Structures are given as C-alpha cells and as structure tokens.
Amino acid sequence: MSPDAKRLEVEGRLTKEPTDRAWAIAAGLVRTRRAATYEAGDSFICAEGIGVVRYWISADGDRLLRGRRLTDAEELQVGFVDAMARAGDAS
C-alpha cells in the first residue's frame, strides 16, 4: 500500500469539499465511458468503472488512482488526469 493510500484510508472523512476540478475529473470519466457513476466518499470521490475497476479522485483533484480498492490502486499519469478534467468541463 502506498503511503498516500494509507493516509487517505486513515483520515476517514473529507477534510474539505471536493474542488470543481475533482468533480470535473469524475464527470470526464463518465463522459468518456470509463465510469458509470460517481459519488463523494471518505477523503475522495469514487467513480465506479466498467467491471470491477474503481477510480479514486482526491478531493483537491490533484490525484487520480485506479484499482479495485483504494489500498491497492495505482496512480494515473498527470496527462490522463488533465484530459479527464477537460472532458468533464466540456459542454
């Protein structure tokens, strides 16, 4: 488990509301059909991907992880995160 995933798991609750960027990333995952739904959870927004994959979006929108569970999720590249934010912002 990565130190950041462990920190997210231990913190328990969101310390701040998700930013517009975080919501845009979640919307981008749905718009590009990588996820079907999303909702705010503890310390992240969780987007339910196709199959058993989940996407974990940090509340500040700086990090996007993909995996079955937060504890074993892998961080995705910044370029992909930026592309999902743009897709979510598109009208």
Could you walk me through the main structural features you see in this protein, from its secondary elements to its overall organization?
The protein is of the alpha+beta class. 36% of the residues lie in helices and 25% in strands. The protein contains three helices and five strands, in the order ααβββββα. It has helices spanning 3-11, 20-31, 78-89; strands spanning 35-40, 44-49, 54-58, 64-67, 74-75. Strands 1-2-3-4-5 form a five-stranded antiparallel sheet, covered by helices on one side. The chain is globular, with a radius of gyration of 12 Å. It starts with a helix and ends with a helix.
- What is the number of helical segments per DSSP (H or I, 4+ residues)? 3
User: What's the oligomerization state?
Assistant: single chain
Question: What is the number of E strands?
Answer: 5
Would you tell me the structural class of the helices and strands?
A: alpha+beta
Give the helix proportion (percent range). 25-40%
| Residue-averaged pLDDT | 85
Question: How far from one another are the termini?
Answer: 37 Å
- Compressed to H and E, one letter per element, the order equals HHEEEEEH
Low-confidence stretches: 8-14
Radius of gyration: 12 Å
